């Protein structure tokens, strides 16, 4: 493995584009890797970078969910003749060491946004016959895999005649996208309406820089999807949730094919299913607005998806009565009443809790829902002890999105340090207020349409009688 700065191509999945940079930054920082960016287009799915060693590339790929693969870039051009000319000039110096009698190899042709038959691909491979190949071709696990990529852009409705870019190089590693399939909700034992999909859960674990031996908390744990992802990277995980039925696997099943919950449906059984039982600490029924932890409890990271109040209730233990009294004979069986837990209050509590219970340098990774038209950075929750280092948008609809926020704890709180929630817009309130408006608009539109149809029908009736 070489130990000198070389040029690499990172190829990303064309999904969750806004998360790439934040994820890569977190991984680089986790492994303390320096990266020089040579070319980083805004929306195309590749970056050209320089890194100090192949080992650094392997480390990045060992964690990244956004990355499809990485290769050492031997040639790149918009013109096929120039690409071949460049490769010829490098053949002896860079390429030859990878070819000898005892080394097998294969060449893969990838074309983006344009389909080619296998024969056409073979013809493309043959144009590289001047390279100093010596060993045998081996399709499964060869010593060296070469990649030739033709990039035709991202718009399937405007595919150019010739590719925009050509790349040739040596494949080094794939990213961790196989995990998305491995942890799929389709095959997971215990899921609910709120289960977070594995791709986003894994991205969150990377944003939190979860590493072997870390202690990770999800205070709004639900079905525990975020614990599954964190444990995959070696985190010891625990969570809390106010919903007793959810934590005991007794809510209504969310799969339409299932009538009742299985006996063994639980967060713990999910962890067992993926062989991560030993990374599972526990889940506890608890109201986050009244944390039960010792004040000196510290965790390495907090990853969470707080309730927005759309699919699940946002509630906390409380009462609107001025002087509630619980008689002694009621105490043993009393179920506390609940009141609304507004989003500004949830985030105020979450940031204050994180400032207190995270280790210094530990990370809080959480989703924040908002209306896209009204978004401004000033609206995001902030706290003097937490520095916002990641902010990636996932668009949910024309009007709404949620942002994955990553905060790093920079110091312990002092007396009087606190988040101010005055500028946080209550997503739930707005959602239902605007939702009503939208419903009213839709009703009016339907009424107009019905009136138009009636007029058309009457007109055509008149016309046919006149004829
Ligand atoms: C968006 S869901 C989290 C889903 C979870 N990430 C999963 O994969 O299933 C929010 C969770 O917060 C819980 N919750 C609501 N109010 C709470 C409170 N006051 N304290 C603790 N949990 C609460 C809900 O019961 C719900 O399970």
TrEMBL record:
Q: Name one Pfam family in it.
A: Tmrp11_N
Reactions listed under catalytic activity: guanosine(10) in tRNA + S-adenosyl-L-methionine = N(2)-methylguanosine(10) in tRNA + S-adenosyl-L-homocysteine + H(+)
Coiled-coil positions are: none
| UniProt-listed InterPro entries | DNA_methylase_N6_adenine_CS, RlmKL-like_Mtase, SAM-dependent_MTases_sf, TRMT11, TRMT11_N
Q: Name one GO cellular component term.
A: tRNA methyltransferase complex
From the UniProt entry, list the residue stretches annotated as the region Disordered: 439-467
The record lists the membrane-crossing segments as: none
Q: What molecular function does GO assign, one term?
A: tRNA (guanine(10)-N2)-methyltransferase activity
Q: Which domain of life is it from?
A: Eukaryota
The segment(s) forming the tRNA (guanine(10)-N(2))-methyltransferase TRMT11 N-terminal domain are 7-177
Q: What is its EC number?
A: 2.1.1.214
Domain Ribosomal RNA large subunit methyltransferase K/L-like methyltransferase, by residue range, is 187-316
- What GO biological process terms does the UniProt entry carry, in alphabetical order? methylation; tRNA processing
- What keywords appear on the UniProt entry? Cytoplasm, Methyltransferase, RNA-binding, S-adenosyl-L-methionine, Transferase, tRNA processing, tRNA-binding
Query: What does the protein in this record do?
Result: Catalytic subunit of the TRMT11-TRM112 methyltransferase complex, that specifically mediates the S-adenosyl-L-methionine-dependent N(2)-methylation of guanosine nucleotide at position 10 (m2G10) in tRNAs. This is one of the major tRNA (guanine-N(2))-methyltransferases.
Q: Which family does it belong to?
A: Belongs to the class I-like SAM-binding methyltransferase superfamily. TRM11 methyltransferase family.
Q: How does it assemble?
A: Part of the heterodimeric TRMT11-TRM112 methyltransferase complex; this complex forms an active tRNA methyltransferase, where TRMT112 acts as an activator of the catalytic subunit TRMT11.
Give the protein's recorded name: tRNA (guanine(10)-N(2))-methyltransferase TRMT11
User: What organism does the UniProt record list as the source?
Assistant: Cephus cinctus
């Amino acid at each position: 493995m070489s130990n000198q700065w070389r040029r690499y191509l990172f190829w990303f999945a064309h999904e969750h584009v806004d998360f790439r940079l934040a994820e890569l930054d977190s991984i680089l920082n986790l492994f303390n890797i320096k990266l020089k960016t040579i070319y980083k287009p805004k929306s195309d799915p590749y970056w050209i970078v320089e890194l100090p060693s192949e080992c650094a590339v392997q480390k990045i790929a060992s964690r990244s969910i956004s990355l499809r693969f990485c290769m050492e870039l031997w040639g790149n051009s918009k013109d096929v003749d120039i690409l071949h000319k460049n490769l010829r000039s490098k053949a002896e110096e860079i390429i030859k060491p990878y070819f000898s009698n005892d080394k097998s190899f294969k060449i893969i042709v990838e074309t983006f946004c344009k389909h080619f038959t296998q024969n056409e691909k073979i013809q493309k491979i043959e144009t590289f016959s001047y390279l100093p190949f010596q060993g045998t071709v081996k399709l499964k696990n060869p010593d060296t895999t070469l990649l030739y990529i033709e990039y035709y852009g991202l718009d399937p409705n405007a595919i150019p005649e010739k590719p925009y870019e050509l790349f040739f190089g040596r494949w080094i590693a794939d990213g961790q996208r196989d995990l998305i399939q491995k942890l799929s909700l389709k095959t997971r034992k215990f899921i609910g309406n709120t289960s977070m999909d594995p791709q986003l859960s894994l991205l969150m674990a990377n944003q939190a820089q979860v590493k072997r031996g870390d202690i990770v908390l999800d205070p709004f744990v639900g079905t525990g999807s975020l614990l599954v992802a964190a444990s995959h990277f070696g985190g010891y995980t625990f969570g809390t949730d106010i919903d007793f039925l959810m934590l005991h696997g007794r809510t209504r099943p969310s799969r339409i094919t299932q009538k009742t919950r299985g006996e063994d449906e639980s967060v713990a059984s999910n962890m067992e299913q993926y062989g991560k039982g030993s990374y599972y600490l526990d889940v506890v029924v608890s109201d986050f607005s009244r944390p039960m932890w010792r004040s000196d409890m510290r965790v390495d990271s907090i990853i969470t998806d707080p309730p927005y109040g759309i699919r699940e209730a946002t509630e906390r233990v409380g009462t609107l009565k001025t002087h509630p009294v619980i008689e002694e004979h009621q105490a043993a069986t009393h179920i506390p009443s609940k009141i609304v837990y507004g989003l500004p209050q949830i985030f105020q509590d979450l940031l204050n809790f994180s400032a207190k219970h995270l280790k210094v340098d530990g990370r809080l990774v959480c989703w924040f829902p908002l209306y896209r038209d009204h978004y401004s950075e000033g609206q995001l929750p902030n706290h003097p002890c937490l520095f916002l280092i990641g902010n990636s948008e996932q668009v949910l609809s024309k009007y709404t999105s949620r942002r994955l926020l990553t905060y790093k704890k920079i110091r312990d709180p002092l007396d009087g340090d606190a988040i101010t929630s005055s500028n946080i817009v209550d997503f739930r309130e707005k959602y239902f207020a605007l939702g009503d408006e939208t419903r009213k608009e839709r009703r009016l539109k339907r009424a107009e349409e019905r009136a138009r149809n009636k007029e058309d029908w009457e007109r055509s009736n008149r016309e046919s009688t006149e004829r």
